[in-house]
Fold this protein.
Amino acid sequence: MKVRSTDEGIQIYDFNAAEALKIARKLEREGIKFYKEFLETVEDPKVKEVLLYLLDEEMEHLKLFEKMLEREDPESLDDDGEGVLDVVDDGVYTLPKSEALATDLDEAIQLGINIEKRSLSFYLEIVKHTKSEEGKNVLKIIIGEEKNHWEELKRLI
């Protein structure tokens, strides 16, 4: 990972495999928290069903990325979550209030699609600024997982 200061702020780029997986772990943890909190506010059983599906997918991704991370860097599974990559605001789950309120089934599915799209955009931008081949390869796996999830959601509408 490299860090540089620009007129636009601090940029973090060129991730190795373990760093890419730590970013993925962070995003999945944020997704789990987001969907758990959202579930507490929803009454419609169909909306809850979609949100539970999205939550389950985030938990499955977290397991997958943690297994991959354990192979890359076993010690990182015990870290305290306060590294530079853990405190960066990726903006994936920071949604406008109008987007964050899903009151029916279609809106819940669209919310999931929008979040997956933001996640994909985030990873696609990271991969563009990663020179490390190992980092790029891991990011491509992560992008593939997110893209599959996005496509599954699109099939629901």
Summary: The domain at 2-156 is CATH 1.20.1260.10 (Ferritin). The longest strand covers residues 2-6. The chain has one domain: 2-156.
